[in-house]
Design a protein that fits this description.
Layout: H1 2-16, H2 23-38, E1 46-47, E2 53-54, H3 56-68, H4 76-89, E3 94-96, E4 105-108, E5 116-117, E6 128-132, H5 136-150, H6 165-179, E7 191-201, H7 202-209, E8 225-233, E9 236-241, E10 254-259, E11 266-275, E12 281-289, E13 293-298, E14 304-311, E15 320-325, E16 335-339, E17 342-354, E18 358-367
Antiparallel strand pairs: 1-2, 3-6, 4-5, 4-6, 7-8, 7-10, 8-9, 9-12, 10-11, 11-12, 13-14, 14-15, 15-18, 16-17, 17-18
Length: about 375
Amino acid sequence: MRTLRALAQQIKWQHMRYGPIDTAVWGVLNKTYAVAEERGAAETKVSLGAGGETSARLEFLKAAMFSASSPDGLLPVEVELAERLVADLAPGFILSATPAREHIFWTELQRPMAPQRAVKAMPGTPGLRGFGPGTAMAALQGHIQKIQTGGAVPSGLNLGGSYEPEQVLDVLQHLALYWDMEPPERRHARHPVKSRLTIMHGFQGALESLGGGGGLDFDKKQTAENWIVENVSAGGFGAMVPQLKSDWLRVGAMLAMQPDGGANWVVGIVRRVSRISNQEARVGIETVSRAPAVAKFTLGALGEHTGLLLPAAVLGSGEVSIALPASVYARGTNLEAHVGGKDHVYMPVGAGDKGEDYELLRFREMVREA
């Protein structure tokens, strides 16, 4: 059980760095659990420190359900929180060698493989194990409802630390999405392409690409990177990063992107990162705006700040997004800006994303009459 827990920690840390995921670790973990079953010890309860009683079956399911929950779409702190939530809900998980409808994931104990979604008939081998959330799904939905109605983290959740209710809710909803009987569907059809994409990263990189870097205290001018677009949809891009140059690439990072041969810049946010080697990664990028612009926004008594005006990527929403430097916006504050020769007022309608160096907010736009 200590071996299973240590191997699960290795896998978690690989996910916190977005891979690459070493399948050899899964090979040892799967075989270790297979030995526990062969010796009739899979259900034996023992106490491992402050975590209370556990079993080989429970430790195996914690690792398997965590890995099957798409942690490559979470921020590092959310990966940690997801592991804690999975551990808390683990007693409700189910595992069997006999395929069943509620086994939405599967693995093969004699192979060095990570768990897979059961989207087609599973191979009929002695090492086959199907598993799923079982009764933990109802408990998870109960936690979601309590946070939504009470605005606080349920007292019974053992998260190993203090987290904001919104952050816990986001991770719970992420788990609920991937534990559902029906796998998540893409909102937009993807089309395979092969083209180059020029990238500037971060809030300041986006400002710089759009000509808004003047007067800002940059340590140094950012060098653009070249990525390879592998697929495109109405909602964003799938791209290959051929050479990782630093650790900045993570879920939630803002990007300014210029397609090969184009003159315009597009602003997007990294939604998924999967390292396939120490030097290469695949990323999923949501397009936020295809017509971004730099503007100076007045935040009442909070002064003036340079930000990004981001008309919706899909027109017709009636809203506009604005990206501002992190920690400068006070909730409920109207913004004002002079855009296109007219004075505009932006009234807040909701929060969007938050990154390490930016905050993305949604506003209703009004033109002030002279």
